[in-house]
Amino acid sequence: MPHTTIAPSSEAAVAALDSGPSPSQQATARLLDDPQEWSSFGRPAGPATPADPSKEPTDFPAWDSHVVLEGMHCAACALTIEDALRAVPGVEKAEVSAATRRARVTWRHAQVLPSEWMEAVRRAGYQALPARDAFARERRQAESRRALWRWLVAGFCMMQVMMYAWPAYVARPGDLSQEMETLLRWASWVISLPVVLFCCGPFFSSALRDIRQRRVSMDLPVALGMLITFVISSLGTFDPSGPFGEEVFYDSLTMFVFFLLSGRWLELRLRDRTAGALEAVMNRLPDAVLRENAAGHFERVATRRLRAGDRVRVLSGEAFPADGTIVRGRTHADEALLTGESTPVLRAEGDTVTAGSYNLDAVVDVRVDGVGADTRFAQIVGLMESASLQKPRLAQLADKVARPFLVVVLLAALGAAIWWWPTDPGKAMMVAVAVLIVTCPCALSLATPVAMLTAAGTLARSGVLVRNLQGLEALAAVDTLVFDKTGTLTRDGLALSSFEPAAGEDADEVLALAALLARQSIHPASRAIAQAGADAATDWKLDTMQEMAGLGLDAWVQRAGARRHLRLGSALHAGLAGEQPVQGVLLAEETSQGWHTLARFVLSEDVRPEAAAVVQALHRHGVQVMLLSGDREDAARAMAARVGITQAEGGCSPQDKLERLQQAQAGGHHVAMVGDGLNDGPVLAGAHVSFAFGRAVPLAQSRADFVVLGDSLELVLQACLLSRRTLQVVRQNMAWAAAYNAVSIPLALAGFMPAWVAGLGMALSSLLVVMNAARLARSLPLAATKHTGTPAAPAASVAIKTGSTATVGRF
Fold first, then answer.
1. Is pTM beyond 0.90 here?
2. Taking a C-beta distance cutoff of 8 angstroms, is the pair 331, 361 a contact?
3. Is the pLDDT of residue 9 over 60?
4. Tell me: the pLDDT tens digits for 242-286?
5. H/E run at residue 288
6. Exposure pattern of 709-743 as b/e (b: 16+ CB <10 Å)?
7. Could you give the CA distance from residue 736 to residue 15 in angstroms, rounded to a whole number?
8. How far apart are CA 727 and CA 6, in angstroms?
9. Are 639 and 606 in contact (CB under 8 A)?
């Protein structure tokens, strides 16, 4: 379960990991090996292993842990950390994102413990901190402050060095005496020392780490360029008559250090702001909460210590720490995270509240019903974490070429130095420096992931969770969109408009039997029947039950030794396929003569008010729309006509839907599927990209690329438009990065690009990529939908009163 803080023991362990590998610090670091601490930065691994509060952490064979990484700046660093983690026995999977500087590690506690794989990260030259805790946030804030101080010091020193260098630029021969020129050089050397020793520290430490590990990263050529520039300038200062005494380059050094630090600091701020939706979501839960003890008093305990059945007091302005039911008080709750709707909702005694939503008005007491991975909040965080660590196809390509490209950069710089050395050793070294700096592929490695993560954060703030980051790339190419009907084009709920028991059947009895079966399913039709029969009572008990996808329920009920075989669902499922088409849902019983109909339930549904406008907007943007429904053919076509869909098929089983989708794909179409329900699982998995509404069953959510938490189809349209904008931004970033290198490398090799210009170009290229991606952090693109379609009639809300002639009919 996500938490906003970890225990003090964990903070001590993190501090020990950061300090070094001394025996006492290693012993302290092993406090993270306490199984009770694992949930503070992870959860049991696997899609079907939710964290059961009644189980011990060691009852789960594997864990997914999330850590924040320090000291990494590029794709090559991410690959290095992944290699270090995967080499540890017991680590099954390691995914590292250079854009978010986070990692997910899947490990088996029977073979390895957190302190051991974190130590592997430390040996690789980086630091791993448990994610989702206040301590990690403080470390990132401290890192930002240090970056700001380095930038300020570099800027101040640059201005002073430029002041001392200016006379040499404007002086005519004989204007400056040898003593004055020497004095200016020494003054520049002294002022450059803070830049080299303090401001360049991160670059040098990263380069030394690379050399020790026998690898290359993007900091290595930059550090070499800084070191070469300072060394040859120092030699020119100490020995003006030597081979490097003709000119010094302190101004170039301080300028390109300042430009590099400017780019990195702004990049850090922009990245934290545009891709910060994940952290903002994960840190919604309170550190601690007031829990009622055995004596009836409330005491503050850590949120992760809560268990189902606890009674907690939530103060005004606090987030609800778990899923629960209000037992005292009345308030409004902000559930924007869960529904995408910013309007507060009223919650009174008996109403449910969800973890991560905010208590806005008053103090309320809540009975905890669900904690850990059972909460909707934990599922949302899990989806966002999974997306943030995925690498789109274009980003994977950039990662693969990063290391070979850096090797080529080093060889090119060496070749340039050898070429220019006979002409002018000083210029040869500065040409090599310019090549080292200007060719650093930072912009190329950031081009795709920054744009994708920014778009994912924008969607998350609007109520659409990106489960699969590859889906953004696929969605941009979609030309066909397939809708399910029930719960997708129509509202999530159904209402029972009429109930008709068969001749000779007791209305109370058959309604109670139907409700008994319907309560075992979350299908909209089942929920409507269960609600209608909520007050009907029967002494029949459910024995066994099976739900058939797209058909209905098959169950055995028993009473005093008697057993009955019942089916609730379509006519085909009820064994009545040979009869004339029957509207509604049937309850049937198996007898010696075959299946006998007990009752018919006619349900009503209404179209979402925005459905017609969304379909029209999709058509305007070149997307073909289809409707595939498991409902009757005439009902499906009538629904399609109401919203403007020309291609519609009804009576589709899950396999039928999948076959229709595969036929469209075979015709060269890129297909997206929007569904809600058990029978949509296979087709959601088979589509190029898929959407599931947040109230969908877990199977549908697990197969979908996007989960829509809100209740509007416009979010699907807006996600399509944003994905196209995102791919345009990615292409722009890639084109800029390629064009920048194509122009700057020849200029640097030819000696036309001073080191400070190279530093400026490198910083601006990375900054431009991030700023271009930041445009995606704005609100979702306007869908330009107006509810011009036929207004949908509201679903009939019928209070079933058994025996009433208004609601009970006969066959």
1. no
2. yes
3. no
4. 777 777 778 878 887 887 787 677 666 755 654 455 555 666 777
5. strand 288-292
6. bbbbbbbbbbbbbbbbbbbebbebbbebbeebbee
7. 41
8. 38
9. no
Give me the helices (H) in 246-375, please: 250-274, 277-282, 336-339
Residue 199 DSSP SS3: helix
Residues 6+ apart with CB under 8 A from 135: 5, 6, 10, 11, 14, 129
Active site residues: 484
Residue 433's SS3 state is helix
Please say if the pLDDT value at position 505 is more than 80. Answer: yes
CB 437 within 8 A of CB 759: yes
Give pLDDT, residue 136.
Answer: 54
Q: Tally Cβ neighbours within 10 Å of residue 548.
A: 15
Q: Return the axis-axis angle of helices 507-518 and 524-532, rounded to nearest 10°.
A: 140
**pLDDT computed for residue 194 by the predictor:** 93
What amino acid occupies position 351? Answer: D
Which whole-number Å values give the CA distances from 71 to 114, 210, 519, in the listed order?
Answer: 19, 12, 54
Q: Which two tokens stand for residue 236?
A: 């020119």
pLDDT surpasses 50 at 564? yes
Distances (CA, A) of 593 to 285, 506, 576: 60, 20, 12
Q: Which residues pair with 108 in a beta bridge?
A: 62
Taking all residues of the chain, what is their mean pLDDT, rounded to a whole number? 76
Lowest mean pLDDT among 114-128, 432-446, 529-543, 604-618: 432-446
Cα–Cα dist 136/113, whole Å: 20
Grouping H, G, I as helix, E, B as strand and the rest as coil, residue 557 is strand
- What is the SS3 string spanning 739-798? HHHHHHHHHHHCCCCCHHHHHHHHHHHHHHHHHHHHHHHCCCCCCCCCCCCCCCCCCCCC
